[in-house]
Design brief:
Shape: globular
Helix content: 55-70%
Oligomer: single chain
Number of strands: 3
Largest sheet: 3 strands, mixed
Strand content: 15-25%
Distance between the termini: 52 Å
Structural class: alpha+beta
Order of helices and strands: HEEHEH
């Protein structure tokens, strides 16, 4: 069952990205990049993780509001694109791992500069 959930999650990530690029007209969602999707084992709930360019808190909040508003439309589109008995409930969460990785990378670069 876990392998099927992973396949559904990857397909949902691709479809959400395509829907955000082509179908959703809300300008608040144009900054979002879907990094991953987690689906529960029973395929009832899905959490899509996204990042935005920059560290501005207002941009993050606006993007979250836009994604929350578009979540019903995105779920309906996923239901028509992916053959599932029941389309998972969709929620969006900010993925801070990209920002954390960038921070660690800058710290390492600073250490390398100091060593030279």
């Amino acid at each position: 069952m876990k392998i099927r959930a992973q396949r559904v999650a990857e397909q949902m990530r691709k479809e959400i990205t395509d829907i955000l690029l082509r179908e959703v007209n809300d300008p608040r969602t144009k900054n979002a990049t879907i990094t991953s999707v987690d689906v529960t084992g029973d395929l009832q709930q899905a959490t899509a993780y996204y990042t935005v360019l920059g560290d501005d808190a207002t941009v993050k909040a606006e993007t979250q509001a836009g994604l929350d508003k578009a979540s019903a439309f995105i779920r309906r589109e996923i239901g028509s694109r992916i053959r599932l008995r029941k389309t998972p409930e969709l929620s969006f969460e900010y993925d801070s791992s990209v920002a954390y990785g960038s921070h660690i990378d800058s710290l390492i670069r600073d250490l390398n500069r100091n060593d030279q």
